[in-house]
Amino acid sequence: MRVLVTGGAGYIGSHIVRLLEKTGENVIVYDNLVTGHQAAVKNSTFVNGDIFDSELLAATIKKYDITSVIHFAAYSLVGVSMVKPQEYYHNNVVGTLNLLDVMLANGVKQLVFSSTAAVYGEPENSPITEDMPQNPTNVYGRTKLIMENAMADYSRSYGLKYIALRYFNACGADDAGDIGEDHSPETHLIPLVLKACMGKTPGLKIFGDDYPTHDGTCVRDYIHVNDLAQAHLLALKALASGHESAVYNLGNGNGFSVKEIIEAAEAVTGLTAPKEMALRRAGDPAALVASSVKIRQDLGWQPEYTDINKLIATAWRWHQDNPNGFGDKSC
Ligand code: UFG
Prior knowledge:
The protein has 331 residues and is of the alpha/beta class. The chain has helices spanning 11-22, 54-63, 78-83, 85-105, 139-158, 189-197, 225-240, 258-269, 293-299, 308-321, and strands at 2-6, 26-31, 45-48, 68-71, 110-116, 161-167, 169-171, 204-207, 219-220, 222-224, 246-250, 256-257, 275-278, 287-288.
């Protein structure tokens, strides 16, 4: 396979790139470095490009004779999407449609797409299975659901074969400790707790303790980024051997509340995170926990990092070794 990875310099993208290279695939990283990091691209061929640049995209696909695409180049923050919807619709919908146009015009019909648990909104039952209603409560989830629907239509009409992976809460870092999560600004819970433990942020705000969950704080299903990576590799291989288009959840199947994550992080680090209660964050569903039975059965996916403490420990190692992240953007 010759794989174009859009957003391959980002957090999840860089971990998938590493796995693909380890397994001997040819990988081209295509990233505009707006949120990605040049330093996260280690040995791969790198194209500094934007998904709106149709000419450069087409030239890259032709030059490297690309057979499949993994598309990470999108915005992914629930909170920001609620205050900047235009940016999210533009990048995640218009940008992805542009990528699809260029792919189809150049005969590339295999796509692994980063989708999200946010497509479900407030689920009726838990754990969530792929056939449950999709009623996103935030703009980010809506942009991803729009693209899932568009891909289904393109699949029927133009022969696109895609696998959409609905990630629950990606976290952790590669055991090598040289790539990890570095967003600017950081909004995700686990890195923020670890930064608070390190004294790098004034304090952690717990967004709401009046949710209908066991301790009142939001419950999420945390999945290690390398387990996500394995799923992408399986999806790519499945498409290459003729698998039909499909949608899969990716989570561990265990829910942890915000308070439980803070306790686990404090246990892993041996430090205390200064914290305070705050109002709910707009767009947050109370609880999102995955059933990943479908991808386990269809593609044989098996997560390795199922212990929340071990999972947080990999993130902790990255933060300790790289207190300023990749050092190229202000944290
Ligand atoms: N939270 C806090 N304080 C913070 C940051 C987060 O209390 O400072 C809470 C949030 O309100 C939420 C939980 O911690 O309840 C997790 O928040 P994150 O921002 O870490 O992650 P999200 O659940 O909002 O979103 C993540 C990805 C999305 C994906 C979603 C799927 O960013 O792309 O998981 O569950 F859609």
